[in-house]
Amino acid sequence: MNRPFNLNRNAWILLLVCAFVMLPFLGLAEFNTKGEPREAVVAYSILESGDWILPTNNGGEMPYKPPFFHWTIAALSLLNGGHVDEYMSRLPSAIALIAMTVATFVFFARRRDTMTGLGAALIAFTTFELHRAGANCRVDMVLTALTVGALYLLYIWYERGLRGVPWAAILLMSLGTLTKGPVGSVIPCLVAGVFLLLRGVNFFKAFALLTVWGLLSMILPLAWYVAAYHQGGQEFLDLVMEENFGRMTNTMSYDSCVNPWTYNIVTLIGGFVPWTLALLMVLFVLPYASLKSRWRTVFVGRIFEKIRCVPAINLFAAVAAIVIFVFYCIPQSKRSVYLMPMYPFLAYFTAMLFIWLSRRKGDGVMRAFCDVMAGVAMLLFICFVAVKCGLVPDSIFGSGRHAAKNVAMLAALEAAGGFRAWLWASVSLLAAIIWLTVYRRKTRGGRLTVAASAITMAIYVSMSGVYQPAVLNVKSVKDIAAEIDKAAPASEAPLYEFIAHGEFAADDPVHYFEINFYLGDRISSFYKRRPTEGFLLTGDEDAAKYFPQFESEGYTFEERYVAPRPVLGQQARVYKFKK
Predict the structure, then answer these.
(1) Are residues 310 and 375 located together in one domain of the fold?
(2) In the structure, what pLDDT confidence band is assigned to residue 218 with cuts at 50, 70 and 90?
């Protein structure tokens, strides 16, 4: 009778812990890659223009993704006075990761046991790939949470004997489609379909039901697609076809993240860190003789009958992981984040493995893994102290291509001071000390997975609170954007950009995404619009190559600003021009 209460209590505790690890640090790092501001500026343009259907940005460019993720940023930013900043832009991803973590705990705890569910949730939450995505302004974490949530709800529908309509799952699939296209519905339906067939459900029944649910999930997205087509016309339709069908059928007009299928294995191993290390350590103590006999039991003879004897939840998790992996091996375009819906299911099997191994072989491996993580946590703090004391010379970076940037990052980390910096940096040290002095001897079984997760989360807190902001902000161009705003004020003239690669290459469009975001989406295309006067932001190489052509058209250019460091591989300059 106490189980529901304990489950709810643990879910609330898990929610609070995840919120503490994620939420305080989302806004500390400025945008330092093109991906984040590219998404954030869409939400900015939504609030500025009031167009929630197909807002344009970067001087008239259509968004490459459906709008649900941008809607969430815009809606949350309304609570921030309508101001879109780094924190609000990353908040939807963080909320998605936290919600998925709690849902994973509840889902598996109710079908297995509390410790397995907690282990699966914590392992998934602390994997490098999911944790990184949860702190980024990209669509992938939201899509992952919606996909995994839809899978959980479709399994609950299966438990109820396939009765009724799984409206909640259909809604999540609709939102997934509105986040990144039809894949938000295809994957849940595909996983559920394979699972139902393996459980002995009639093919035509499974196919008919899931086809209906898939079609129902397309109603809301279709309404948006129709409305967006009325605004964007053929250009919008071409974009949709290329980003969705072209990417899956390998018929895109340009190469995008083209990799062999083995790339998925490599990125999965890297993305599952630090638990990849724990699994590697487990390999040395597995009872291979016992496993060999089990392997023969399952795969010799009537394989499908034996698969049906596997506990339903185990089969569902295995099918989900395998189908998602195979699905994303098909297109040429492959990125590590595509595999993220696998992680909660892999985490479930990892948690079960650790608990089973603890009962068979003792706690030595997991205790050793906790020791390793504690060592990493302590080493992290020691390195911070060494940097703060000036014990790390600049000469260790040599004089190579990135030496100057690395020296600047080291200087930024050395300059990170104040009570807050030392507080967050000491969290990893404190976690290591508590483990080594208090919990190491008395922690047993599945609780060792919780302990390892706690140490990992402490490392993430130190990384997110001190190290990453200091280092990554060196790569940001927010300061350059502020200088450009002074040299080329909006009150004096419009601002345009010219990037030859962005205009002429058959590739993913290149813009000054970061600068444009920090300037409030001011930048338009010089090459397409050919304005008679204004300011022009361009690189020195592009200026040297193309200014003669523009001058032959009657343009004159007067240099106003030179950036202190390269942007997009060239020395960025601002000119005042007139025709």
Answers:
(1) no
(2) very high
Asked if 115 contacts 47 with a C-beta cutoff of 8 angstroms, the reply is no
Same domain assignment for residues 129 and 223: yes
Is the pLDDT higher at 298 or at 427?
427
Same domain, 368 and 510: no
Q: How far apart are CA 499 and CA 570, in angstroms?
A: 10
- From 411, 443, 472, give the residue that closes a domain: 472
Q: Do residue 486 and residue 456 come from a single domain?
A: no
Helix (H, G, I), strand (E, B) or coil at 534: strand
Least Cα distance to 141 among 317, 310, 343 occurs for: 343
Whether residues 260 and 182 fall in one domain:
yes
Across the chain, mean pLDDT equals 90
Indicate if the pLDDT at residue 294 is higher than 50: yes
- 492, 520 Cβ separation under 8 angstroms: no
Pair (318, 370) in one structural domain: no
Beta carbons of 128 and 272 less than 8 angstroms apart: yes
User: Can you say how many angstroms the Cα of residue 492 is from the centroid of all Cα atoms in its chain?
Assistant: 39
3-state secondary structure 24-81: HHCCCCCCCCCHHHHHHHHHHHHHHHCCCCCCCECCCECCCCCCHHHHHHHHHHHCCC
- Cα separation, 274 vs 277, in Å, equals 6
Taking the C-alpha atoms of residue 12 and residue 9, their distance in angstroms, rounded to an integer, is 5
DSSP code at position 264:
H
For the stretch 492-504, pLDDT in tens is: 999 999 999 888 8
Angle at 338 between CA 333 and CA 340, to 5 degrees: 160
pLDDT band at 291 (very low <50, low <70, confident <90, very high): low
Max Cα–Cα distance, the chain, nearest Å: 84
281 and 390: one domain?
no
419 close to 466: Cβ distance less than 8 angstroms = no
Distance from C-alpha of 497 to C-alpha of 535, rounded to nearest angstrom: 8
How is residue 290 written in tokens? 């016992």
Q: Which domain holds residue 332?
A: 3-30+64-360
Hey, what's the torsion of the CAs at 413, 416, 417, 422, to 10 degrees? Answer: -70
Paired strand residues for 333: 258
